[in-house]
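Progress against Task 2.4 (sequence-to-structure conversion) is shown through the following example record, which the project officer requested during the mid-term review.
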Amino acid sequence: GTGELNGGRVLTLTAGTNSDAVSINGVAISGMAAGTTNGADTLVTAINANTGLSGVTATAYNVVEGVSGSSGVISDGGLTIAVGGGSDIDISASGSMAELADNINRDAAGVIASLNTRGALVLTNDTGKAITLGGTDLGNIGIIAGTYQGYVSLNSSDGEAISIATNSAAAGVFSDLKQMGFNELRYNIWT
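Structure tokens generated for the chain above:
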């Protein structure tokens, strides 16, 4: 509907450049502490702190989907997963994709592993916290090493369209919006 908006993957947000730089329904988004690095989960907290003024509620989630055709065979410690900047967790050895998904679900809190209809690994959470993958056996799981930030979904309480824009009063620029996973439509041109 018009009162829903799903963004792209959030980039790492730095408080000094993003706080108050973007507005939703005319309300500046603030609340990201100076000197910290933020992701989708922190952005949701900042947006929801102003729900009463903006009429918009935010939720965060994360989805990392691999490619099919991988074996899922890993050695002990051949795959590490960290969630939300936490410590790397070593995933137990596995001999198949199904066993790998089971081991991830047992070993790594904050992430849910499953296989899609093509047999590819899918990692998700409903917090939007970053999922970081590392280790020596990544080639066997179909996902590239890296930190995958979450996504933000917006919902308006009245079902009306959601306005998201840069806040020129706070020297907001389009890159601030894009870091949050959104674009701006201005004069019928996507920026």
